[in-house]
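Changelog-linked ticket: NDP example.
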Amino acid sequence: MATPVVPSSFRAFRVHVDGEEVRRTVEELPFESLPDHDVTVRVAYSSLNYKDALSASGNRGVTRHYPHTPGIDAAGEVVASRDARFAPGDRVLVTGFDLGMDTPGGFAEYVRVPGDWLVPLPEGLSARDAMALGTAGFTAALALERLAFAGVTTDLGPLVVTGASGGVGSLAVALAADAGYEVIASSGKGSAAGLLERLGASERVGRAALSDPSERPLLKGLYAGGIDTVGGVALENLVKSTRVGGGVAACGNAGGAELRLTVYPFILRGVALLGVDSQHADPETRREVWRSLAGNAALRRALADPELGQETTLEGLEEQVERILAGGVTGRVVVRP
Ligand code: NDP
């Protein structure tokens, strides 16, 4: 086996939390500070997700121990491995599990993870495109799978994607439109209208369309359902407005975590409320989903859209973390350490 060539130190975007004070810096760390897992990966690209911004803000629901390196996504090349399934030179990606939560994450030049977390980079997918998709693309694909499994077919009516200009939202729009759904993109950003149309949305509505709290247990059944990244009142209204036999995949809580519903959408319309959890997806599902993402021509076109993605460095992350927390990011931010 080739002797791994590893440096004595590496750069990482670090978050320090001292009481109420949160400090973020790019630091040089000793190589031995990486955790004792089996596979060491030189990170070519990572990406910024909402959860990373929470971790970078001292949110103890995401990260318990600081100082910490966030980054729930990473793609790159294996440089050392004690796991027989991986050898130096292998191109791999990792999303979720504990990466970037309490395991030092992808906002660094290197990560070290258990082999079970790794997915071989599918043929034809670059590390950069893998991270332009990242947890967001993987989650959007899981949401669509859940809807298909629940029998939410394209002839049932339009599908609403909330938080449509965000990472999960924009890729969900592209994937759902490609799967044949009529997609209504719900977005607070007028500036994203062109992008959402190019991704395949047939209609764009403002956030207000789903943001009025209502005491009514059911609203007019307008939609086949949706992919929700916002939670709270938007998810309540989406479930209440879903037609008989429809379903809503709940992915996120960018707008709120509470849910006030009665049983009526479920027992009078058979609506399915489908939870989506990308973090704990099993290895087989991961490989299958990544293979299908890699082979999706519509996604390739989407990724080529300059408005869908932007690139930043470890130094640029500070600004992007604040932007994503304020709901201000359109599409995806790829990180090149
Ligand atoms: P982004 O910030 O990229 O997207 C979130 C979008 O939600 C924003 O762009 C904005 O879209 C909208 N939004 C933001 N704030 C509000 C608000 N206060 N009220 C209503 N809408 C708002 O984040 P991600 O795409 O990375 O993640 C989206 C959500 O999904 C997060 O809650 C995240 O934690 C969750 N998630 C869950 C996963 C899972 O496995 N279940 C995996 C990945 C993410 P617009 O301006 O277009 O309305």
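Closing comment: Example verified and attached. Residues 49-51, 135-136, 139, 163-169, 187-189, 192, 207, 229-230, 251-255, 276-279, 324, 327, 329 surround NDP (CB under 6 Å). The radius of gyration is 20 Å.
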